[in-house]
């Protein structure tokens, strides 16, 4: 990892004992951080709910009998957003985990592949690919929109270290519609639950054409996403004459193709 990445991580996580305590509680240092990211504003609502409940318990102890009931009601109401987002996250995580194994098995690994993950997030798909081919190297790209719950550069590098692949990957914060890579660079290009964040159909077409442009002849593309987000990529693949264009699944689908 470069000095720039080290500086970014140090700046992000800070220093001092309170920072280390917060990191231990929230960052789960001994496990990969592939969980659904809850927005800080929602976590703050949960904290306010706990404070309200504590105040209600104190007031009840002081003789205000109805305070506890009100406190419990308010606390439950303020916890609803975090419960809803957590449930959604668990559903999506289970679906994504199944897709990861399917994607890896769709790729005919031969060794020495160069892999690109478009919208790599916390790195789960890219690292699975790299670990499948011990001599492969990988590049992840993402712009890390804080509202897409896709993680951060700091989370990506922490996971890379835990997974033992840090020396074989790099991360670039670039837009999928305007990739800085040369033509026909990558053997494998993958993407998981990122295409629907790219934008409208025109934006998705730009990103898909960039994917095809940077793929080597004989290379493999596998994109996982909600069905409607794959309509434009599939049309582009077929219009550009890619081989073995296949699509499977229901709500969450997998689109694959090969470059002639």
Jot down its keywords:
260 residues; alpha/beta; Rossmann fold; 7-stranded mixed sheet; elongated; disordered N terminus
Explain what the structure shows.
The chain has a domain at 109-258: Vaccinia Virus protein VP39 (Rossmann fold, 3-Layer(aba) Sandwich), CATH 3.40.50.150. It contains 9 helices and 7 strands, in the order ααααβαβαββααβαββ. It has helices at residues 3-13, 17-26, 40-61, 67-106, 124-132, 153-163, 195-198, 201-213, 231-239; strands at residues 114-118, 137-141, 169-172, 186-192, 215-226, 243-249, 252-258. A 7-stranded mixed beta sheet has the order 3-2-1-4-5-7-6, sandwiched between helices. α3 runs antiparallel to α4, α4 runs parallel beside α5 and α8 crosses α9. The protein starts with a helix and ends with a strand.
Q: Tell me the CATH superfamily of the domain at 109-258.
A: Vaccinia Virus protein VP39
What percentage of residues falls in helices of 4 or more residues? 40-55%
Mean pLDDT: 83
> CATH top level of the domain at 109-258?
Alpha Beta
Shape: elongated
How would you concisely characterize the structure shown here?
The chain has 260 residues and is α/β, with parallel strands linked by helices. Helix content is 50%, strand content 18%.
Task: Produce the secondary structure layout.
Layout lengths: L2 H11 L3 H10 L13 H22 L5 H40 L7 E5 L5 H9 L4 E5 L11 H11 L5 E4 L13 E7 L2 H4 L2 H13 L1 E12 L4 H9 L3 E7 L2 E7 L2
Parallel strand pairs: 1-2, 1-4, 2-3, 4-5
Antiparallel strand pairs: 5-7, 6-7
Helix pairs in contact: 3-4, 4-5, 8-9
């Amino acid at each position: 990892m470069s000095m720039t990445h080290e500086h970014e991580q140090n700046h992000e996580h800070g220093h001092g004992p309170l920072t280390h305590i917060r990191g231990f509680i929230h960052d789960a240092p001994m496990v990969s951080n592939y969980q659904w990211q809850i927005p800080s504003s929602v976590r703050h609502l949960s904290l306010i709910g706990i404070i309200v409940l504590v105040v209600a318990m104190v007031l009840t102890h002081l003789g205000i009998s109805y305070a506890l009931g009100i406190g419990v009601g308010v606390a439950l109401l303020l916890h609803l957003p975090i419960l809803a987002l957590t449930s959604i996250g668990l559903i999506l995580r289970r679906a994504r985990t199944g897709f990861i194994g399917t994607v890896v098995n769709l790729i005919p690994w031969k060794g020495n592949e160069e892999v690109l993950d478009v919208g790599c997030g916390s790195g789960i798909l890219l690292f699975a690919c790299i670990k499948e081919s011990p001599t492969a190297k990988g590049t992840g790209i993402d712009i890390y929109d804080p509202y897409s719950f896709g993680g951060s550069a700091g989370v990506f590098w922490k996971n890379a270290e835990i997974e033992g692949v840090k020396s074989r990957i790099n991360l670039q914060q670039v837009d999928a519609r305007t990739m800085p890579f040369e033509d026909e660079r990558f053997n494998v290009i993958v993407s998981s639950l990122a295409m629907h964040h790219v934008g409208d159909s025109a934006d998705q077409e730009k990103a898909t054409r960039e994917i095809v442009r940077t793929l080597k002849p004989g290379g493999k593309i596998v994109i996982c996403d909600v069905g409607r987000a794959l309509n434009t990529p599939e049309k582009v693949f077929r219009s550009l004459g890619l081989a073995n264009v296949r699509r499977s699944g229901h709500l969450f689908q997998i689109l694959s193709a090969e470059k002639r």
